[in-house]
Design goal:
By secondary structure, the protein is mainly alpha-helical. It is about 80% helix and about 0% strand. Helix 10 runs antiparallel to helix 15. The longest helix is centred in the middle third of the chain and has 31 residues.
């Protein structure tokens, strides 16, 4: 029971990212009016939280390798609560942008350390299974977040969304206190200052196989965040759905990630994590190829496009958990740093996708199709080229990567 509670708390910690990203999306027009600013300025608040999540992991992950997991996790959760309150009270868009960066930076503690805790406590297929279970739970966040945000806006203003995020952080803090023990014993910690930090980061990035899994995760994140950024315009402006119908469509497609993540947790009992990852990438390539055809020469047919989006987004549930488990398994001796680099790639690549999918405006979807297809191809190339071990068959080399280091 305690292990189940621990996984649930770790999933909640991982979910702060999608909650902070998705919950306030329906409030963008109201926020622009209330703060007297442009839509592009409001969109910068989304970019700010993504970069905060990326850079925060690069700092907090290595820090947790030195000090242990529990203290930075507790401090980060409290600081994220304070940043959420600052967002709720922000009198201007400029202060809101700063507060959103701080919210992402401090919220990164939960995202990066949750992965490190699992890496500390498990290896191989068991780690992949736990990552998949955690992702299946945390995948409910992008399903519920826009629906919850839209519901809040029916009886309160946009600031209530950030008050709710503050309450979620308080719940996270209580969960960490009750169910997350220290997972990194003192003898496995790494002392040293910034020189040691740079050396550790360099050693992680020089691990070719680790880098392959990290880039696979990063480029797959471009697919996910590119879809998230483009979906309001695709579904509402091009397909003609209402805002409410868009929220339901977004939730339906997001459910596919949770279902695929749950399936992945069972598949790794019969197949290696690498094999499940390859299957996920095959589905991703198929989905993005069909999507590119539909948004360029296919006329964006409504229901076939939604079906292809379900395949594309759902395949990510077979990729993320296994890519993280295999990547961190290559650098288990510095799991916090390994988790940080993967997380930083995830949100940095995601932030880069957002402007790319909107290059031609809201009336066409071809930039989204090109961006998602290109990112999927790069993810597959990263996996194929960088994770192949010299002189070893791929399947044998990839079955138990966590035994190294």
């Amino acid at each position: 029971m305690r292990n189940a509670a621990m996984i649930a708390v770790l999933a909640l910690l991982s979910a702060i990212g999608p909650l902070a990203i998705d919950m306030y999306l329906p409030a963008f027009p109201e926020m622009a009016t209330d703060l007297g600013t442009s839509a592009s300025s409001i969109q910068l608040t989304l970019t700010a939280v993504l970069f905060g999540l990326a850079f925060g992991q690069l700092v907090i992950g290595p820090l947790s390798d030195r000090t242990g997991r529990r203290t930075p996790l507790l401090v980060g959760t409290v600081a994220c609560l304070a940043a959420s309150v600052l967002c709720a009270l922000a009198p201007s868009v400029e202060l809101l942008i700063v507060a959103r960066f701080l919210q992402g930076f401090t919220g990164a503690a939960g995202v990066v350390i949750a992965r490190a805790v699992i890496a500390d406590r498990s290896t191989g297929s068991e780690a992949a299974r736990l990552f998949a279970i955690m992702m299946a739970i945390s995948s409910l966040a992008p399903v519920l977040a826009p629906l919850l945000g839209g519901g809040i806006l029916t009886f309160a203003d946009w600031r209530a969304v950030f008050w709710l995020l503050a309450a979620v952080n308080a719940l996270m803090f209580a969960g960490v206190l009750a169910f997350i023990p220290e997972s990194l014993p003192p003898e496995k910690r790494h002392d040293g200052g910034f020189t040691e930090l740079a050396r550790t980061m360099g050693s992680v990035l020089r691990n070719r196989v680790y880098l392959g899994y990290a880039l696979t995760m990063g480029f797959t994140s471009m697919v996910l965040f590119g879809y998230i950024s483009a979906s309001p315009f695709l579904v509402q402006d091009i397909m003609g759905f209402s805002a409410g119908a868009y929220a339901l469509t977004f939730a339906l497609i997001s459910v596919c990630i949770a279902v695929a993540s749950a399936a992945s947790s069972r598949l790794v009992r019969r197949f290696t994590p690498h094999q499940v990852l390859v299957a996920g990438l095959a589905c991703l390539l198929t989905g993005t190829t069909l999507l590119l055809l539909m948004v360029t020469v296919g006329g964006v047919p409504t229901w076939p496009t939604i079906a292809v989006l379900m395949l594309t987004v759902g395949s990510i549930g077979l990729i993320f958990g296994n890519a993280v488990a295999l990547g961190i398994g290559e650098v288990r001796h510095v799991a916090g740093t390994g988790s940080a680099v993967i997380g930083a790639m995830q949100f940095t690549f995601g932030a880069l996708a957002s402007p790319l999918v909107g290059l031609a405006g809201a009336e066409t979807a071809w930039p989204m199709g090109v961006t998602l297809f290109t990112a999927a191809v790069l993810a597959a190339v990263s996996l194929a080229v960088l994770t192949r071990r010299r002189g070893q068959p791929r399947a044998a080399a990839s079955s138990e990567p966590a035994s190294r280091g």
